[in-house]
Design a protein that fits this description.
- The complex is a heterodimer of chains A (257) and B (285).
- By secondary structure, chain A is of the alpha/beta class.
- Chain A is 35% helix and 26% strand.
- Chain A has a domain at 9-102 and 173-252: P-loop containing nucleotide triphosphate hydrolases (Rossmann fold), CATH 3.40.50.300.
- Chain A has helices at residues 49-56, 86-92, 107-117, 123-136, 140-143, 156-168, 186-199, 212-218, 236-241, 246-252; strands at 9-20, 23-29, 32-34, 38-42, 66-74, 77-78, 93-96, 174-178, 204-209, 221-226, 229-235.
- A 6-stranded mixed sheet of chain A has the order 7-8-9-4-10-11, with helices on both faces. In chain A, strands 1, 2, 3, 5 and 6 form a 5-stranded antiparallel sheet that branches.
- Chain B has helices at residues 4-37, 43-47, 60-91, 98-111, 115-129, 136-160, 164-172, 177-206, 209-212, 234-243, 248-284, and strands spanning 50-51, 56-57.
- Chain B has a two-stranded antiparallel ribbon with strand order 1-2.
- Chain B is built from 11 helices and 2 strands; from the N terminus they run ααββααααααααα.
- Chain B has a single domain (43-284), classed as MetI-like fold (Orthogonal Bundle).
- The chains are: A alpha/beta (257), B mainly alpha (285).
- The A-B interface holds A 57, 59, 62, 64, 87-91, 94-95, 97, 99, 101-104, 113-114, 116-118, 163, 166-167, 170 and B 94-95, 163, 165-176, 179, 183-184, 188, 283-284.
Chain lengths: 257, 285
């Protein structure tokens, strides 16, 4: 698949197939993800969109019976290659989950968790990471005076931004977001959407969503998946205004979903 | 033909009576022990050695002996039990290979073996074969065998109750599996592990048969001086007083006092477990 514009490619899949035991979840997916853009992956429940982004940082592997064939190239290198260090891959490709899942620790310790497991112990350095990441996630102003409070005392939207900050604290290149707003109210959702745009200054952002308006609002490129296959992929404007595939059109116009 | 309403009444009356019977039994036992035992218990009883054929004095060596015994058992059983549970529920989770199946089955079976069998094992293995002598070391190792399956079961349950999302969050940040377990799973399973371990130990504290043939002394009016020394223990002291006494009239009060102290000890351990569990569940909510 060709690049959609002249920007750099960050991720490229080649004939990616994935099975959970006998279930064929991803079927010959070929997609290119551009660097420092927001790419949205949408489709009805069970279409494989979450599995696709989890294939990028090999998080599917923690589920028993998962098999993969094909390639996922990040910066041209196959992440399923034998010489790939999964631990380093997951540091470079962060993941934000559907439901905010902060640890029941302080706000500070949540953000510092990643740096700590990667060997940073000096307090000054950790402080810098925590402040930087919370600023990047647009949460710093709200929590700077109560970093030692429990993360669970935050609202749902704040918790999700904390989880984004936690992911950013290990200096990833790509941030995967799996329906990050599905558990949030409209106001909190709006904040996260603004944040997604801001993050493209430094990161490649990929979001899974089944909220079409969200895909239209925040993404540069949109992919539509159905039953494990990539049906259509292109610039968001084109996908929404002039879809080529009949299925895509039906989905966008709300005939199924 | 009995109507549904009447059947309902009969069923619930039966269920209520069952529950009541359990409660009555517990209250009766406690009342019997407390009313007979509490008059005997005072500072001297707790801090003195037995005197004059165990008819007077106190039970100090038996109290300390039981505390030592439980502490040593904890020392041996906790690391082994928790490590096994971590292996079974974290590393081998969902793996259906034969070794894991066998270990899991073995821990369940171990939990059901009568304690006297463990005693015989301890006698053969620790006292005779490994030549650890008839000692507090042999006795506590034997009790560890008895406690490990309980700790494994409790720890497995505690580990499995830690939300999967904590593990996923840590793994997605690039944590290794061991880092994930150590920093994102174990801290949250710890209260459950502690609760289960305390309950296991409180059972060990009351065991008589296994220690009888591995290290407990009939009469030893001093504290053990090494791991290879014999020791007195509360449950065996009760057994001695109730079956081996040359003058039951005179030893009976001491016997009730000892039962009271043992019951109190076990009750305190159980209460500690309940407190930890309830505080933990409140933190979670």
């Amino acid at each position: 698949m060709k690049a959609l514009s002249n920007n750099n490619l960050k991720i490229q899949t080649k004939n990616l197939n994935l099975w959970f035991s006998e279930k064929h979840v991803l079927k010959n997916v070929n997609i290119v993800i551009e660097e420092k853009k927001v790419t949205a992956i949408m489709g009805p429940s069970g279409c494989g969109k979450t599995t696709l982004i989890r294939a990028f940082n090999r998080m599917n592997e923690i589920i028993l019976g998962c098999r993969t064939s094909g390639e996922v190239l990040i910066d041209g290198k196959d992440v399923y290659g034998l010489d790939t260090d999964v631990v380093d891959l997951r540091r470079r490709v962060g993941l934000v989950f559907q439901k905010p899942n902060p640890f029941p620790k302080s706000i500070y310790d949540n953000v510092a968790f990643g740096p700590r497991i990667h060997g940073i112990t000096r307090r000054r350095q950790l402080d810098d990471f925590v402040q930087f990441s919370l600023q990047e996630a647009a949460l710093w102003e709200e929590v700077k005076d109560r970093l030692n409070d429990s993360a669970l005392s935050l609202s749902g939207g704040q918790q999700q931004r904390l989880c984004i900050a936690r992911a950013l604290a290990v200096a990833p290149e790509v941030v995967l977001m799996d329906e990050p707003c599905s558990a949030l109210d409209p106001a909190a959702t709006a904040k996260i959407e603004v944040l997604m745009r801001k993050l493209t200054q430094n990161y490649t952002v990929i979001i899974v969503t089944h909220n079409m308006q969200q895909a239209a609002r925040v993404s540069d490129f949109t992919a539509f998946m159905y039953l494990g296959e990539l049906v259509e992929y292109g610039e968001t404007k084109k996908i929404f205004e002039n879809p080529e595939n009949e299925l895509t059109e039906k989905y966008i116009t709300g005939k199924f979903g | 033909m009995i109507s549904r309403r009447v059947r309902e009444k009969i069923a619930f009356t039966f269920l209520r009576l069952s529950a009541l019977l359990v409660l009555v039994a517990l209250v009766a036992i406690l009342y019997y022990i407390v009313s007979n035992g509490i008059g005997v218990v005072n500072i001297g009883f707790l801090l003195k050695n037995p005197e004059e054929g165990m008819t007077r004095g106190g039970i100090f060596p038996a109290i300390v002996g039981t505390v030592y015994l439980v502490a040593l058992t904890l020392l041996f059983a906790l690391p082994l039990g928790v490590a096994t549970a971590i292996y079974l529920s974290e590393y081998a989770r969902g793996k259906n290979n034969r070794v894991v199946m066998i270990i899991k089955m073995a821990t369940r079976i171990l939990a059901g073996i009568p304690s006297i069998v463990y005693g015989l094992l301890g006698l053969g293995l620790f006292v005779l074969f490994l030549n650890l002598r008839f000692s507090i070391l042999s006795a506590s190792l034997t009790l560890s065998f008895l406690t490990v399956p309980i700790i494994i079961a409790a720890s497995e349950e505690a580990l499995e109750s830690v939300p999967m999302s904590y593990r996923e969050a840590a793994l997605a940040l690039g944590a290794t599996r061991w880092q994930t377990i150590r920093s994102a799973v174990l801290p949250y399973a710890l209260p459950g592990i502690m609760t289960g371990s305390i309950l296991g130990l409180s059972r060990a504290a009351g065991e008589t048969a296994p220690i009888m043939i591995t290290g407990v002394a009939y009469y030893l009016p001093r504290l053990p001086i090494s791991l290879f020394d014999q020791f007195m223990a509360l449950p065996f002291h009760i057994f001695t007083l109730s079956t081996q006494s040359s003058n039951p009239q005179l030893t009976r009060p001491v016997q009730f006092g000892t039962v009271f102290v043992l019951m109190a000890l076990v009750l305190v351990m159980n209460l500690a477990a309940i407190v930890i569990r309830s505080r933990y569940s409140r933190l979670r909510a």
